[in-house]
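Morning!

As promised:
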Amino acid sequence: MSVSGTSQASFAAPSLHVIPEFYGVYLLQSVPKPRSFYIGSTPDPPRRLRQHNGQLKVGGAFRTKKTGSRPWRMVMVVYNFPSKVAALQFEHSFQHSHETRHIKHADRVCNSRSAGNSLHHKFANVRLLLSSDYFKRWNLKVLVLDETIYIDNWLKNKFRIQLPPQVEVTSTDFDSYFGDTTDLESGDLSSQSNQNLIQIRTENDNTIWEVAKELVVLNSPTCYLCKESIDYLPEEIPPLNSRKDLELFLVGGQLPLVSVCYHDSCHQVFHLSCLSTNCNRDESDSLLPTLVECGNCKLRLEWLRVAKLATKLRHYVLKDSIITRSQAIDQGQ
Amino acid sequence: MNGEKTSRKTRISGPVESVDGELNSINSYSAAVEDGQEAQEIREEGEKEQVEQEEDEQKKQSMTQPEVQESNDLYFASTQMQARHESVLELESQEERTKKTVSQFLGFRNPSEAAPTVTTRPIRRQTPRLTARAGKRKPKNQSMSAMVRERFNNDKFAYFSGSQSKIDDFLKRIRKVEDLDTLTGSHSSNDNSCLFTKEEWVCILKNIKLKFPDLSATKKKSLNIITRRIQKYEQETEEGMWSQASSLPSISLTDEELKWLYDLSDEQMVSNSSVIDEDLTYGSDDQLQFVMTLSQNKQISKENEVEIDQHRDKGDKEEMADVAARKENSVEEQSKEESVPAEVSQDQEIFSLDNNLGDVIEISDSESEPEVLAVSSPPRKQVEGTIDKLSNDVSSHQKVPVFDPVISFQSFPFASTTGNHTTELAKEGEDLSQVIESISTESPHRLTKFNLDDISIPIDSNTNTLSGTPLSDSNDKHESPHDAYRRDKEQSSYNEENHIISPFKTPTKKSKELLSKFSSPVKFNSPVKPLDTPNKSPFHLITRSADSQTVAEEIVISSDEESIYSTARSGFPSAQKIESLYVKSDDDDDDEEFPQIISSIPAKSFDNIKKRRLLRTTRYEVTTNFNLNDFEDNERHVKLRKLEAKRIIIDSDNEVPDSEADDEDQNISIIEITREVGDENNTDYLSNLARDSDGVANTSILQVPSSPNEIILEDGENVSNEDKDLFYTLPGSQVIDSAVRIESIVSNEQNSKAGTQKRLNFSTYTTKELHEKIKEWGLKSVQGRERMIQVLSETSKLVVNSQMSKSPAKTQTAPEESQRLFKKYSYAKMNSLIQQNKYWYDKVLSYEPLRMSELKEWLQSEGYNLEDDFLAKFCDEQGICRTNQV
């Protein structure tokens, strides 16, 4: 998860950006009142749902407290956000689809707060957002957690809004995807006993992670593209007490973002920047690449995953040096 | 004619049935004939009645005959005289007009005996004046009141019909018309409340009796009443309040005043207030000052309307000014003289001859000029208080008595001949200075235009003269009473002087005489009709000229002051030296006494500001060397030439000159373009310019800065766009040697941080063009031209020249297209910037939410002060996550 430091006037905690493992924006629908919806974001949907339904002691939302509306069920989740901030931005746009700047006025489905509150509208808005200039580069994915809803609402596409092709929409079941959490307090994803998609993926991710860690940190690789050696174990990392410190350190260029081609056949190490520059793109196009090819194996790489690895690696290296706020307090700051 | 008149005259008494609706109402008033006072009013009402007018006219004619003859000689000693002359002329024309209207009204005559509602209304002597005045009104620049007046005059019946309130109003104002009496020569009777003199009434009576030998008892009775009343009026002295109030201000100076004025020394005049000092400073501001006062003169109090109207024809502001001055001086100057524009100062607004001077009868004249001298009437008590002061202590005229600012103007030396005069006169000493002050202070601030064409009028350089003092004070309309008083005085005094000074001097014989008389204050008394008022300020030094006292009175008034003040011999920096007037004076003493009259009015009038042409020279450094013939376009005042190929660094905003020494003369040519600022077609012209000189759209001239050095690489030819694009795509295109290349380019880029001087000069754009440009580029519009220029220039740093060259001749690219292009290039530039910075590149690639503040800071360090909205748009359209979090 991205570590965002609390910024106080006196103490700006250094926050190293890491792409979160999971962050999604979800759509709740009230079971007893199917016309009531709730939109939120969370890194952990099962936990969140329980909070909404009052199953957990802490948390929940005011709007979902009303007993008449409970229980809630999660209908849809948009995930794969690169940061918490990004997810929140999406959530806000989704909640204010009648006035968000990301949906052009002409395309709007909802035009006022009160109008347009059916599932059709909700889905249409999601479609619109996903196809907006801003969100379309993020490799966002959609989960629809109810088969019927998927067919009747999502696929029906009542408002005929085309999605960008790269967006994956999965129809699944909440429990199966997120695992059965009834018997767990925290609902930790990784501790799911059931074999489900997310677990598989997580495991998959885990393996890659291990590989990457080993390759980059332990070994001394060279960037496949620029042929520079990558030293991810700098001798001296000064204590990074503040945001400024971190910034200065990073500007120094000692720890450029390095990633690994996650295809098993390749596992090639390279600078993130090298890889991105390698891809052909129009000069005025976004810096964020869409189609990336591994320099080595030429297989297509999903950029978010690549970047996620890179940030994780960096974080792994620096996490000990970064003094969190609590630690600073402990040190008598 | 006579017969007609008499027949109409028969109608005197009682409620007369009239056919005309209006006349009915008037006649209803006639019932009140019993009340002498009311009778007067009624008569005033009846001014519409043409008959009376005719009578009046006749009488006036007879009385003013000598005056009229006098008028052949166009040399008036003072503007007052001229004004009077003009008023007479106007009266005449009025009479003619009334005759005409009378004939029209004849149609309405009721055949019955009781009918003729167009009866002899003793009043309405003022009407002819009014109508005459109205007739003389110039068609242009009519104020509301002027229009009303005109309407009134054109058809009184129509004006009043159906509007009782109008009639009431009219009557009220008529009551205030006092001056008519003076003009019509009823000075002999100081009784201004009476419309007819005794003689006139006798005549009327005779005619009535002739015509209607058999009058009913009631009618006879009313006739008798009228007769008696008139007699009473005739005999009335100025002791009564009403008579005092209604009488003209005394215009003769008492000994006291003479002495005072005589004693006025230069120093006193000067020291009386820092007026003069300030005046001096103002003197430097000649033109402005001059003009200012002129404008002041234009302002006229309502009260002065009448007189002004009368004088207007004379076209001599001097006289009018004189009149105005007199008016100003008189509390009772209810004759609303239109103080000649010359004379009226801005102050006059303050000093409004207020109708509210309780008991004062003022000439109600709604037909005053817009710039009406608003002279407020001072409360009587105060006035008298000041008088006493003055009388008691001559030297105290330097002091400023407590005075109501409102009063100010009225308290002019030219107070009426009645006791009220004293009050005003008392103030003169101080008021005048105040007046002048106020005038002077206000003058600079106002620049109204003249209604009349007379340019002559000297303007109330009242201000200029004495008012040294609290110019600042006088600025304040709520100044203390004494300030106002002083101001009044000064103003009035100055008025006179001004009149003398005016470029178009129109001194009349009278004024000459007067002046000569006034040469020595002591001498002066002789021709002056002794006034009753005890304390006459020097400003009452008005000689009623031998000819016609009435006329002369008004005319002279200002001259009094002029002469008086001329004794002071104040020095004024920009003053004119007026010699002529006094030279012609008969009295030798004049020369001694007034060696030179110095007017503080600058000699020359306010010319139009010479049209200046602002030229701006800009130099452009062009990277390519080309031959340029000197180009000069005189029509548009543009000059273009090529300078020595010496590198000239233009210090435009925030630009850091290239650190690299680029002394390749071959690469650089410097073009100097001199252009007139204010041309609207600057940029177009420039671009055309480029084309003209080169035959090619050489946009190098307008090159955007920050063009990286790589563009300069080529020699002697325009850099092609492909080349430029090449550089930008280098990072992406070169794989193997990219690192090296990148660095070189990075270094290049960094060297050319803030770019060169090749940039669109947005300051040459018009504001409208700037706005359009901003819209075209999809930027957020900003307030203010400077801001717009700033935004555009900064943002344009991103835009390489290539954008221009791609569509050189097409000035009409579709806005979307141009915006797309702009975005394309600017974003490309941004991306390249980011790409070259590892830190920032990593940030973007890792989807890290960019903190806007940090981004901005970094860009600034790179030399790009971009706007928030632009950055936001950039991020949004590139899919870069951003946050406002600090």
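Residues 197-218 of chain A form the longest helix (22 residues).

Hope this helps with the figure draft.
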